[in-house]
Amino acid sequence: MKKFLLTMAIATATLASAAQVVEVQSITRVPLQADIHVNTPCISPDGTFAIVSTNDDSSLCRIDLATGAVSTVTDNGSTLRLAFTPDGSSIIFRRATVANDHRRFYSVESLDLNGGATRCLAAPARHGAGFSISPRGTLSLNADGRYRARALNPDGLAAEPYAIVNIHYGHLEVTYPDGSTVNLDPQGRGSYLWASLSPDGKHITYFLVGHGCYVCNLDGSDVRSLGYIHAPAWLGNDAIVGCQDYDNGMYITSSSIVAADLDGTIQTLTDESIIGINPSASADAKVITFSDPTGALYVINLK
Fold first, then answer.
1. In CA terms, which of 23, 97, 157, 163 is 20 to 30 Å from 254?
2. pLDDT reported for residue 154
3. Rounded to an integer, what distance in angstroms lies between the CA atom of residue 97 and that of residue 95?
């Protein structure tokens, strides 16, 4: 049986490599100018830098993708669900605090990447408030069951409420622009991971443990399988980028960065010389960053 599954996996990988979703121009390793081990990178909207969490501590660092210059932006933060303002000048992220009884709480903070000023947007809570930023720069926040939206953009545009996608006790949870929150769970009760909203707010991608990666409409309809893809992130509105990783029960033995369109066509972007994990794509879907288990950081430029 193992030999048969291995043969099928090789055949699937070969077919995936032949499929064309994007056109790769180059893949390069970022020359990091500090002793830092990158865990999860989040690329800026313009694709010139990344905010990364590290394997070394709880800090968030900024890395210039051209020069590898590294600077710490906060000593306590998470890249999980981190969001940029459209101009890349600020980030919204979660900060963890630990109570005397060892329970962990999460606040939502904003950070000006130019001046360094921080602001608490939601007080610490057990699971942390849900939030999103629309392409027009509207921050939507769901804290303590209260939904609110406000414009962060400097051009005077009115706030445009935007949906919030979250994972809550394994449920895929959506807060709609009218303020209502539902456990969407498009395929029924299960363990949902890596849920995110497309930039245009029309689709959700997610991973269902034991089943694979999927995409559906904002209301949970038209569920489509995208195959075995971990850590899916949006690559524009019409494709996702993720990884196909394999382990031996102790550590990752191989992992390829892949792109998939919404019909389930999968293209392998990296070869076996790189163990690629945790990808992130720029707003124009032209640049992808990812890390590897050693903490190295890579960039894929697309045509």
1. 23
2. 64
3. 7
